[in-house]
Design a protein that fits this description.
Number of domains: 1
Number of helices: 15
Strand order of the largest sheet: 1-4
Structural class: mainly alpha
Shape: globular
Largest sheet: 2 strands, antiparallel
Radius of gyration: 19 Å
Length: 351
Amino acid sequence: MFFSRIWVLALNSLLFFNSVLSFPQPIPLNDGDSPKELLGDLLTVGVRTTTGQTVQNILLGLETGQSAIVVDQASACAAQSVCCVWYSVATDLTKLFLARDGTCNDDARAAIRLGFHDAGTWSKSNKAAGLDFGGADGSILIAAFEEQNRGENNGLQTIIVKMQKLAKKWKVGLADLVQYAATHAVVTCPLGPRVRTFVGRKDATQPAPPGLLPSVHALSSDLIALFQDKTIDPHTLTALVGAHSCSKQFNQDTAHPGSAQDSTPGVWDVKFYNETIATKPNKKLFIFDSDKALASDARIVTEWRAFISDQAHWNEDYSAAHVRLSMLGVNNINDLTECTGTLPAARNKFP
């Protein structure tokens, strides 16, 4: 029994300090413009747990938002049973997201977008007005709320049904599944980071507020203001919008459904940043007006151009940004459990 307890403590220590062994870190974790705003219960009651400290560190740019450590199922289940079921979920998601050629597929792309569209429905302004709901609460998967019928969620109906079935199969929380599927999809894409992933959120009890998601036709000033109201500054927004590296459009230009936003939509690379601002655009691509507007905004242009030739920089910034996104509207951060170890290993070279 004594040695068993020592093993459990050792494993928990490994999981807690995984940032020490994380990859890659060719740049400082806070590269000069990390947002300093805290969220949820970290803001109202402060750090109460190890997880709370970890998330706070990531939000403040003091700890990496990604981890290379893969924890084998037997060890994890012996130490923290909360994560056990996510190995089964991960197996199903890999089958769903991985194309035969080793790239990530349309379901993976949709899952990444789903994570944004669920979490992005929270704002500081609403919270200040007493409307502290929405965010990463899984409301987009609750059929009775009919969020799948909102115009901004057009194109997500198929992945919503698939996630609903998966949640029912494994009896996991809707809020957690949406964010877990998003980070799993990112690492399924070649070159994608293993974003640190947490579970234990409370599922929604009401629909998310409308009108809080960005338009692909919006001006950069409007987009920046919209995201700043979510504690996401221009630096962080620049990293998040890079997810369009693996996106395709089906509804903006119906004459060319499936047209991508960069030339390698199955690979999580930085070509998006260069191809969006190319002097001679690739005619096969569909570049969103909003992306072009952001790329030329003085508050974003330096970081945008920095990502063009620096995959590691973008991966690190994106990981921290997604952790922040996944905590919007979450008021029990101290109660969450980190299950990053259940995600597939990253593939840092492709092919």
